[in-house]
Design brief:
heterodimer; A: 241 residues; alpha/beta; 6-stranded mixed β-sheet; 10 strands; 38% helix; 25% strand; globular; B: mainly alpha; 10 helices; 0% strand; flat; binds adenosine-5'-diphosphate; binds magnesium ion
Chain lengths: 241, 238
């Protein structure tokens, strides 16, 4: 379970998160949407301690993120993260990208880590790319390697930050399919995405953020059929064209 | 009375001058290589200090770079040679000053410390060209800061900065000639020495020139091989 309680964050004078409250239960998928600059990425990075915040608390699986006594490195092992621009390590093959953390952090043997990595590459549908370097992979393939890299730590939670928004349209589906499978297998996920097909299929809840606040929340039906605020209506009409 | 200069290229190989030149070349190579090792290790370390999240470490890194790159190398060398031993206290200084070939060690250390400040700047530029998300992606897998630099950021940054590092590696051999001012018998020193004895400085200097050129070209070739081996696969001309 991820509990976000009264979280506020400032960059200097600028308040980027305003009293955020949210609970993501085990096995749930929550989708976050909202205009650019509304604080979605920042919220995600607060959850795994990549960004500090000044007020409130976040508790992941019973462990308080913003407690100086928390071993944040240990906690991050349980929280996988996927980025908009994949962020693979360019000087390493797909396989090396996936095995690095299991070897260095979990202290798996190279062989164990590679077996685990190959299983994951099969799961995301590109075992034949194991020895390719990122620059030789398409965007969709890179993102699937990035998902495999995160899963290799066997996390309990996954954070996705606009995983398909840097992809060509024909590659979006291959990445979403992997995410849908994950959600259906019971991964606890927080996904920043504007892919409403994905949201309809797997989201237990949709959050709409604007100017650092969650201004609307509900199921897919509630959000799309009955948006309460003008901002949400506006936003929905934009993403649906 | 003769006015025409009579060339005598044999001063480049005739006994004992050939040996002098060879010895000089050897010293130049030794000083350059050993200083380069110091410069690389220290430069990577200082460059990394400058972007860590620890404020004091950053300050230390910045202070180092600004100190060493803003003072002419020849002044630094004089300082280490004449004042350096005193830094260890008067008693030790006496002993240090008696070390045979002190100027050899001072040249290596001085050149290494100076070049480290330049390497550190390139390393920092390499780090800066890596996106914030790339750093965060590494940390998100549970790696510590040290692991992040050790396994991802430094290897990646070094590959990006191979071209400027090639230039520094070249420069270190050229700068080693400054050490003749503290009496180090490196290549340039030896060519002057031949001139003093034979009055054939023109030949001796020309010879030294070509040897430096050859040394430089070897470095370029070597770094080219390194670049080919470590080039990030699939990336075109980065
Ligand atoms: N490191 C930072 N320093 C200062 N301002 C930042 C920083 N990161 C993000 N911001 C600002 O915070 C706001 C929210 O950013 P972000 O969380 O990336 O929004 P979103 O992901 O919803 O587009 C933006 O106005 C952005 O400019
Ligand atoms: Mg964002």
């Amino acid at each position: 379970m991820i509990e976000i309680k009264n979280v506020s964050k400032w960059f200097g004078d600028f308040q980027v998160l305003k009293n955020i409250n949210e609970v993501i239960r085990q096995n749930q998928t929550v989708v976050v949407c909202g205009p650019s600059g509304s604080g979605k990425s920042t919220l995600l990075r607060c959850i795994n301690g990549l960004e500090p915040f000044q007020q409130g608390e976040i508790i992941v699986g019973g462990v308080k993120v913003n407690d100086p006594k928390t071993n944040i490195y240990k906690l991050r092992q349980k929280i996988g993260m996927v980025f908009q621009r994949f962020e693979l390590y360019p000087h390493m093959t797909a396989l090396q990208n996936i095995t690095l953390a299991p070897i260095k952090v979990l202290k798996l043997s190279k062989k164990e880590a590679e077996e685990r990595a190959m299983k994951l590459l099969e799961r995301v549908g590109i075992p034949e790319k194991a020895n390719e370097y990122p620059a030789n992979l398409s965007g969709g393939q890179q993102q699937r390697v990035a998902i495999a890299r995160a899963l290799a730590m066997e996390p309990e939670y996954m954070l996705f930050d606009e995983p398909t928004s840097a992809l060509d349209p024909e590659m979006i589906k291959e990445v979403l399919d992997v995410m849908i499978d994950l959600a259906k297998e019971g991964m606890t996920m927080l996904c920043v995405t504007h892919e409403m097909g994905f949201a309809r299929e797997v989201a237990d809840e949709i959050l709409f953020m604007d100017y650092g606040q969650i201004v609307e929340r509900g199921t897919y039906e509630e959000f799309f059929k009955n948006p309460k605020t003008e901002r949400a209506k506006d936003f929905i009409s934009h993403i649906l064209h | 009375m003769r006015f025409a200069y009579e060339f005598d290229w044999s001063v480049l190989w005739r006994h004992p001058y050939g040996i002098w030149i060879l010895k000089g070349l050897l010293v130049t190579i030794e000083v350059g290589l050993l200083a380069w090792i110091i410069a690389l290790i220290l430069g990577i370390f200082i460059g990394t200090l400058r972007i860590t999240t620890w404020r004091w470490m950053r300050f230390l890194g910045t202070a180092y770079v600004e100190l060493f790159r803003n003072i002419p190398f020849i002044v630094q060398l004089f300082f280490w040679f004449y004042a350096g031993p005193m830094l260890f206290g008067e008693k030790l200084a006496h002993q240090i000053n008696r070390i045979p070939d002190l100027n050899f060690y001072v040249a290596i250390i001085g050149l290494g410390l100076y070049t480290a400040s330049r390497v550190a700047e390139h390393v920092r530029a390499g780090f800066a060209s890596i996106s914030r998300d790339q750093y965060q992606a590494v940390l998100s897998t549970g790696m510590t800061q040290v692991q992040m630099y050790r396994y991802v950021i430094i290897p990646y940054a070094l590959r990006i900065i191979i071209p400027p590092l090639t230039t520094e590696f070249l420069t270190i051999f050229k700068n080693s000639s400054v050490a003749m001012t503290i009496g180090l018998a490196e290549l340039t020193f030896q060519s002057y020495r031949i001139d003093a004895v034979t009055f054939h400085g023109l030949e001796a200097t020309t010879g030294a020139m070509f040897i430096y050129l050859f040394l430089g070209l070897s470095v370029v070739k070597f770094m080219g091989l390194i670049e080919k081996k470590y080039k990030i696969k699939g990336m075109v001309g980065r």
